[in-house]
Every structure is written in structure tokens, then in C-alpha cells.
Design a protein that fits this description.
- By secondary structure, the chain is an alpha/beta fold.
- The protein is 34% helix and 23% strand.
């Protein structure tokens, strides 16, 4: 077993079939990788897919563990050294898995990400990520037509968790996704930062490609729900990873400039996020798997 592909499903069932079908069409030998799908107490349960995908391991959680917690539940059951995370609303190109595994063969690489396109287009969604001093994140190339401008491998600050890979030895060294980022956002950013601090490279591989229906579970990037989760995740990242000096001399000036360009609604969301994230930045209990969380596991049959 060379690779374990972990998929956390939460209210994205209409897209999950396309995701699984894309993996079943992979050029990577089917007996060399496994697929583990965690139904994260979804409102669109996966029960009806069990018989249709006999080679997929389905795990159902009693409660929503968030993105990190759901992947932790899957990781506990993964058998391979190469660990790939894929969103259920993503479709992988036939050579995606092989390219991701190939990148991870370089022991200097701790985390690998890929080129992400908007579905059915040549419009870029992600070609590696950048972080600003106030921890605001931005995808390289977002919204640009893909004409080859990001077709070279590059070391980047972080890569998007919608389609990301790492190895078990890296996880043993720097850790995995933190359940403190419940329900979602910035857990993969912290993983990338920890990997770089641990001496590993975070690599963007442009030959690995997926199409991704962005922000399906959160309702869209302009909604209040998304903004609340994004800014709470951002502030958890700041509280967990910035020193007091960094907060004073990097975060605060950058945040002031950022807020001055935002509308009143987003400024109010940020104000609430400063306090709520401070209270929850070290609390992993909402998303940490507990005994009794698993309702069924087809791998246990």
C-alpha cells in the first residue's frame, strides 16, 4: 500500500460521487492505494454509497468533528506512509495521485500541494499560497487564466488543504492537523508552517491537478458564515504561532491597514473573531475524536 487518500464528507454528498469516480479512474495502480471516506455526521449521509464503492472504506462519525478531526479519524485507519487529503467536492486528474506520491519521494519535501482549477474551466483557484503579516492568506494565481504561468515547481509558504499530501514520518515529527481549528480553516496552514520550521520543504507541484467546487460546505466565500470561520481560523493561527513581538510589530500594523479597506460587516466579524479565537485557540475538544464517535466502519467488517 503506497498511499492513503482521506476524504471528509460534510454536506457535499452530491459532489462525492464525482470525487470517488475520479479516483477510481486514477492511473495509479488501484491495489497500491486506499480510499477512506469519513461521514462527519453529514446532512447528506454516505450510507447509499457503501455498496456502490466496495473498495472504499466508509467511516461514519456520530458527531461533526470538523475538517481536522474528520481527517484524524481517517488517519487512525490509514495504512500507507503517503497520506493524501482530498476534499469531497474535488475531482482529481488521472495522474494527480501519482504526481503527489512522486513529489513525496523526495525526503526534503514535507508537504505537497497541487494546481487547483475551477471546475470545467482553465481558471486558477490555487497555485500555492502566500501569507501576509496579519496571517491573511492568498492563493497565487487566483482568478487568472491558466496559460502556463505557474507550471514550474515552487517552494511556497503553504498549500491549500483541498488537495494536499504529506508523509507519516513528517506527521511523526511535526504533527498533523490540529483539532483546535474546529470546524475548519487554517489547520493546513499551520501544518505547512510546522513542516517548514522542522526543516521540510512545502512544495507546489503544477503537474498534479484537481478541479474544486470552492466553499461548498460553508455556503460561499462572501457569506457571513464563511467570513466568521475564516477570521476565527486566522486568529487562532495568530494566537498559536505568533510571539508577542510578532503580534505587536507585524500583525497589528498589517491588520489595521487590512481593516481600513474592509466594509463594516467584515470589521464586525473580525472584532468578534479576536475574542472568540483567543478563548478557543488551544481547545481541541470539539474536534478531537473520542471513543464512541464511530457509528460504523466498513473496514471493520
Amino acid at each position: 500500500m503506497q498511499a492513503s487518500v482521506l476524504i471528509v464528507e460534510y454536506s457535499t454528498r452530491p459532489y462525492l460521487v464525482e470525487c470517488l469516480d475520479s479516483l477510481e479512474r486514477s492511473e495509479f495502480p488501484r491495489d497500491a492505494f486506499e480510499i477512506i471516506v469519513v461521514d462527519n455526521a453529514s446532512s447528506t449521509p454516505v450510507d447509499g454509497l457503501v455498496d456502490a464503492y466496495p473498495r472504499v472504506r466508509f467511516v461514519k462519525s456520530r458527531r461533526n468533528l470538523g475538517f481536522a478531526g474528520g481527517n484524524i479519524l481517517a488517519l487512525e485507519r490509514a495504512r500507507a506512509d503517503n497520506i493524501l487529503l482530498l476534499n469531497p467536492d474535488a475531482r482529481a486528474a488521472p495522474d494527480w495521485l501519482g504526481e503527489m506520491v512522486l513529489s513525496l519521494k523526495a525526503r526534503s519535501v514535507g508537504v505537497v500541494g497541487c494546481k487547483i482549477l475551477h471546475p470545467g474551466t482553465h481558471v486558477l483557484q490555487h497555485a500555492g499560497g502566500m501569507l501576509f503579516p496579519n496571517a491573511r492568506s492568498e492563493h497565487r494565481g487566483r482568478g487568472q487564466d491558466d496559460v502556463g504561468q505557474f507550471d514550474r515547481e515552487a517552494d511556497v509558504e503553504y498549500v491549500c488543504g483541498a488537495a494536499i499530501g504529506t508523509r507519516r514520518d513528517v506527521i511523526d515529527t511535526v504533527g498533523f492537523l490540529s483539532a483546535a481549528y474546529f470546524p475548519a480553516y487554517y489547520e493546513e496552514t499551520e501544518l505547512c508552517v510546522r513542516a517548514r520550521q522542522g526543516g521540510y520543504r512545502v512544495l507546489y507541484n503544477p503537474r498534479a491537478v484537481v478541479e474544486h467546487h470552492e466553499s461548498v460546505a460553508s455556503g460561499g466565500a462572501s457569506t457571513r458564515k464563511y467570513l466568521q470561520r475564516y477570521h476565527e481560523g486566522r486568529m487562532r493561527f495568530v494566537y498559536r504561532n505568533y510571539s508577542l513581538r510578532q503580534i505587536a510589530f507585524q500583525f497589528l500594523p498589517s491588520e489595521a491597514a487590512f481593516l481600513s479597506a474592509r466594509d463594516g460587516r467584515e470589521r464586525r466579524v473580525c472584532a468578534r473573531a479576536y475574542l472568540s479565537a483567543l478563548m478557543s485557540s488551544r481547545d481541541s475538544s470539539p474536534g478531537a475524536p473520542r471513543a464512541g464517535d464511530v457509528i460504523f466502519d466498513t473496514g471493520a467488517r
